[in-house]
Structures are given as structure tokens and as C-alpha cells.
Amino acid sequence: MHIPDGFLSPPVFVSSWALSLVSLGYALKKTRGILKDKMIPLMGVMSAFVFAAQMLNFPVLGGTSGHLLGGVLSAVTLGPYAGAIVLSLVLIVQCLIFQDGGITALGANILNMAVIGTIASYYLYILLKMIFKKNRLIAVFIASWLSVILASVFCAFELAISGTSLLRIALPAMICVHIFIGIGEAVITTLILNFILRVRPDLVEGLKR
Amino acid sequence: MKKKDIYIGLLIAAILAIFSFFSSSSPDGLKKVAQDKNFIARATNIIKAPIPGYLFPGLSNKSLSDCLAGLFGVVTVFVVSMGLGNLLLKKDK
């Protein structure tokens, strides 16, 4: 869902840059307050993992492919703010070194995937965790599925406000594709967190009581 | 997190990156929508990145250049992330 240059109009990319910078600043401040020595390597490993996983596109129905975004995965292991920083770092490296996602659209990509797909989706997970008290992995599954759909909804609005596509065309099309990509996200995220929970439960901050 | 865990984590990421040549070459969700709804032609590139499209330049073998780009990315992201983490920690003290 990495938006390239040219899809967003200047007012849209400037305001999404502003929104994502403010959110990132807040995330950095929050992380600084709670960061412990032992968390730094986990942040490093998680960003390496999210980067690698984002390179692996799995096929989805109808000649489309999707890959893990890793927002909920990072947020549940590192907390929402350090998780958003991990996602942003991955997006910045992808943009500057691999030309994946445009430089003008980087703010919007951070907004969609690190702010909405990670921070907002983490609070969705917290909400779902209260509903499914007995099985937190169900909350993980639904939250990661919704995280992808929500990010695609934001993307569709950005495209529509930019005049790139009409909302009544972009919104259903984006949601339709990402409902399926989101299932991949949900399955992978749940499997990984279930695995970490079995071998190293101490690493999964957000799954603790 | 112990040293051993870091090595295991990085090894997993490196293995995933190496296997990235198995990655599906179909367009992703946004690209597919852009193609179907006829706005893909608007896509441009403002900056010239050193390793565009996850293909390490100067290699004729696509799989090999895919692997190398992936490994380079994994190491870069890890180093940047650890660096930022340490920076945040230092400022706190």
C-alpha cells in the first residue's frame, strides 16, 4: 500500500506530512519515557523482521498480491509508540533506498501504516481484548485484519481528496482488495504472536495481563 | 533480550530476505486498484534511490540481486533502529 509520488496533490501530501510528523514526535516522546535498555535490541530485530516480511508478497485472489504490514505485530510486542517508530523507520528506508513509496507520499504512508495501522490499530486491539477476554489471540486476529482495511480506507480518502480517483470508485475498490490482504496479515500476525507467546512470552508486552 | 535472541531474530529476518525472490510479482492492492481504475500513469519518481525495486544494481542474476538487496535492507534497518533506540535512551539520562 506504499503510495508513489504523483498520486497525491500538494495539499494532501503536505497535510499528511504534518500529521505524521506530529504523531511521530509524540511517539518519540512517549517512547523516550518508557524505553529500557533491553527493549532496544527488540526494536532492532523487529524492524529487520518487518522490513524482510514486507518484501515477501503472497498472492491474493484475482492477480493481486499482499504482504505483511506488521503494525499490530510491532505494537503488541513493543507497545504502540515504539511500534509506530519501527514501522516509520522501515517506510523511510524503503522510500530512500529502495524507491518503494514516494518521497512526497512518505508522510501519507507513515500516516496510513504507522499511525493508523499501528497506533490506532493497537487501541482497537485493546478494545477487542476487553470483548474477547478469554482469547487474546482472537483480538490480535481481528485487530490486524482491521488495521490493513483501515489503512486502505485512509489511502482511498487521500487519493479522492487529491482528485486522483473518485471516492465512490477508490473506496470500495481499496476496501475490497484489502479485506483479502488483511486476512493474510491476520493469519501471519496471529501465528507469529502465538509462536512468540510459546517460546518467549516475556517479549510480548501487550499480551500480558 | 539476550545476545542469542538478537542473533536468532536477525537470522530469521535474513532468511526471509533471502527468500524474497519467491515473492509474488503480482501488483499489490493499491497498484492493482490504480491499474483497474486507470490512474497508474500518474505514478512518478521524484528522487532516485540507490537500489530501486529491491534489485541490487550491477548484477545480472535477478534472484541474487533480490537476495542482496534484501540483506542490505535488513542490516540497514537494524542498524538505524538500534542507533535511534540508543539515541533516545541517552537523551533520557
Low-confidence stretches of chain B: none
- Proportion of residues in helical segments of chain A: over 70%
**SSE string of chain A:** HHEEHHHHH
Report strand order across the widest sheet of chain A.
1-2
Strand content of chain B: under 5%
Question: Greatest contact pair?
Answer: A-B, 70 and 60 residues
Task: Identify the quaternary structure here.
Answer: heterodimer
Overall pLDDT of chain A: 94
Describe this structure in words.
The complex is a heterodimer of chains A (209) and B (93). With 209 residues, chain A is mainly α. Chain A is built from 7 helices and 2 strands; from the N terminus they run ααββααααα. Chain A has a two-stranded antiparallel ribbon. In chain A, α1 packs across α4 (80-98) and α2 packs across α4. The mean pLDDT of chain A is 94. Chain B is mainly α and 93 residues long. In chain B, 59% of the residues lie in helices and 0% in strands. The model of chain B has no long low-confidence stretch (mean pLDDT 90). At the A-B interface, α1, α2, β1, β2 and α4 of A face α1, α2 and α3 of B.
Précis, in short:
The complex is a heterodimer of chains A (209) and B (93). Chain A has 209 residues and is mainly α. Chain A has 7 helices and 2 strands; from the N terminus they run ααββααααα.
Strand and helix map with partners:
The complex is a heterodimer of chains A (209) and B (93).
Chain A (H helix, E strand, L loop, with lengths): L9 H25 L4 H17 L2 E3 L3 E3 L4 H8 L1 H19 L7 H26 L4 H26 L5 H33 L10
Antiparallel strand pairs in A: 1-2
Chain B lengths: L2 H16 L10 H8 L25 H31 L1
